[in-house]
Write a structure and sequence with these properties.
Layout (H helix, E strand, L loop, with lengths): L2 H39 L3 E13 L2 E7 L4 E6 L10 E6 L6 H5 L2 E2 L2 E6 L4 H8 L4 H12 L5 H10 L2 H4 L3 H22 L6 H20 L3 H18 L7 H14 L7 H19 L4 H23 L2 E2 L6 H20 L7 H9 L5 E2 L4 H16 L9
Helix pairs in contact: 1-10, 3-4, 7-8, 8-9, 9-10, 9-11, 11-12, 12-13
C-alpha cells in the first residue's frame, strides 16, 4: 500500500466517523424531542408563546404562535385587537398533534388566550416612533419581532426583505462593532503575549449566543451564528472561509440541533444567499470593490429565480435594492445608536416615504422547471473546476 492509498483510506475513515457522530447526535436530539412531545400531548396544558402572525379569515382570526419548543397555528372567534408580537398564555388541546407536526408546525384548538406584559425593550422602541408600522420595523430589526403583513408586502416589492430578517449581515455588523468597542478595553487589561483575535473572537461568539437566546433563535440567525463559529475554526486552522465545505457543515449542524430546519423556508433562503456569495468568490477575487459594490448587484440578480419562486411582488424600485443594501451597512449601526440615546424617530419620514414606493406592484412567479433547472445550474457551477479568477 502506497502513501496515496493510505491517505485515501484515512480520509474515508474520517468522513465515516464524522457521519457517525452527526447521526448519533441527530438521533439523540430526535429522541429528546419525542420525549418532550409525549409529555406535551399527554394532557391539555397551558404554554406561553408569542403571536408571530395574525390575520382575519371570514368570521374568525388565524393566529400563529411560537416559543422555544414549537410553532403552531390556532383560530379564535373572539373580537381580538391587534396582538401581533404579544406574549400570551394559552391553553392548547393536544389530542390530534403528530410528532412530525410538533417538530415542524401544527394546528391545535386553544382556549383561554391571556395577554402577558409587554417587554420593556419593546416599549422603549415604541416610545420613539409615532407610527406603529415603523416601530414594528425596528422591533423586528433589533429583536426579531414579526412584521405586519403590509410591511412584509412593501419590503418584498422593494426587494429588501432580507435586510429586515436578522441574518449573517446583521451578525457581521454586530461582530464588527463589538470588536471595535472591546479592542481598546482588551489592550488595557490583557498581556501582550495573548492572541487578541482569538480571545476577542471567543468573547464575541459568547455575546452573540446570548443575543440569539434573547431573540428566540430565529432560523436565519442560527444559521449565521453556526457559520460564524465554523468560519472562526477554519480561520484558526488557516482554511478557506469561502469554502462550500463550511456551508455544508453549517447546514448539517443546524439540522442536527434544530430538526425543524428541514422544513424551514427561512433556513433554505439563508443558505441559498450564502451559497451564492461563496459561488461569487469562487470566480471573483475578494477585493473591497467586489465585496462592497459588485457583490450586492450580483446577489440581487442571482436571487431573482429563487425569491420569485416563493414571492411574486415586483416593481421598478426593486432594481435599486442592491444600492439600498450597501447603504444599510451604515444605516443599521446608526439606528442602533439613535435608539440607544432615545432619538430613534429622526429618520422615520424618510423610511415611510421609501416604503410607500412598495405599495404598488405586479406579481410574477418563476415556473417550477426554471427554478429546478437553475438550482442544477448553480450546483454545476459550484463543482466545476475554475482556476482563473476574474476582476483581479
Amino acid at each position: 500500500m502506497n502513501m496515496k492509498q493510505l491517505i485515501q483510506i484515512l480520509k474515508f475513515r474520517w468522513i465515516w466517523q464524522l457521519f457517525s457522530v452527526v447521526l448519533f447526535i441527530f438521533l439523540l436530539n430526535i429522541s429528546y424531542k419525542y420525549y418532550e412531545y409525549k409529555n406535551f400531548i399527554s394532557k391539555s396544558e397551558f404554554i406561553t408563546a408569542k403571536i408571530v402572525n395574525q390575520y382575519k379569515k371570514k368570521n374568525y382570526w388565524v393566529l400563529k404562535l411560537k416559543n422555544s419548543k414549537m410553532e403552531f397555528y390556532t383560530t379564535s372567534r373572539d373580537d381580538l385587537k391587534d396582538i401581533l408580537n404579544s406574549n400570551v398564555e394559552v391553553g392548547v388541546i393536544t389530542k390530534k398533534i403528530s410528532f412530525f407536526g410538533y417538530l415542524t408546525k401544527f394546528y391545535a384548538p386553544t382556549f383561554h388566550l391571556g395577554l402577558l406584559e409587554q417587554p420593556e425593550y419593546n416599549k422603549w422602541i415604541e416610545k420613539q416612533h409615532k407610527d406603529k408600522y415603523i416601530a414594528n420595523i425596528f422591533n423586528a430589526l433589533f429583536f426579531a419581532d414579526a412584521l405586519y403583513y403590509k410591511t412584509r408586502q412593501q419590503l418584498s416589492t422593494l426587494g429588501i426583505s432580507h435586510l429586515l430578517a436578522l441574518s449573517g449581515l446583521h451578525l457581521a455588523i454586530i461582530s464588527g462593532l463589538l470588536y471595535l468597542i472591546l479592542s481598546p478595553i482588551y489592550n488595557l487589561f490583557m498581556p501582550a503575549y495573548r492572541n487578541r483575535n482569538i480571545d476577542l473572537g471567543i468573547l464575541i461568539l459568547i455575546i452573540l449566543f446570548i443575543y440569539l437566546a434573547f431573540v428566540g433563535f430565529p432560523a436565519s440567525l442560527v444559521r449565521s451564528f453556526i457559520m460564524e463559529i465554523i468560519a472562526f475554526c477554519f480561520a484558526f486552522y488557516l482554511r478557506d472561509i469561502f469554502s462550500f465545505k463550511l456551508l455544508f457543515l453549517t447546514a448539517i449542524v443546524g439540522i442536527v440541533i434544530f430538526p425543524s430546519f428541514l422544513t424551514s423556508l427561512g433556513f433554505f433562503l439563508s443558505l441559498s444567499g450564502v451559497f451564492l456569495i461563496f459561488l461569487f468568490f469562487k470566480y471573483f477575487k475578494a477585493t473591497f470593490i467586489n465585496g462592497l459594490v459588485i457583490l450586492p448587484i450580483y446577489l440581487y440578480i442571482a436571487m431573482i429565480p429563487i425569491s420569485h419562486y416563493f414571492f411574486g411582488n415586483f416593481n421598478e424600485y426593486q432594481l435599486i435594492s442592491p444600492f439600498v443594501s450597501i447603504i444599510f451597512t451604515l444605516f443599521y449601526p446608526l439606528e442602533m445608536f439613535l435608539h440607544l440615546i432615545g432619538e430613534g424617530g429622526i429618520l422615520d419620514e424618510i423610511i415611510k416615504s421609501y416604503l410607500s414606493l412598495g405599495d404598488k406592484f405586479i406579481t410574477f412567479y418563476i415556473p417550477n422547471f426554471i427554478f429546478y433547472s437553475y438550482l442544477v445550474f448553480l450546483f454545476y457551477l459550484s463543482i466545476a473546476k475554475q482556476n482563473l479568477k476574474y476582476l483581479k
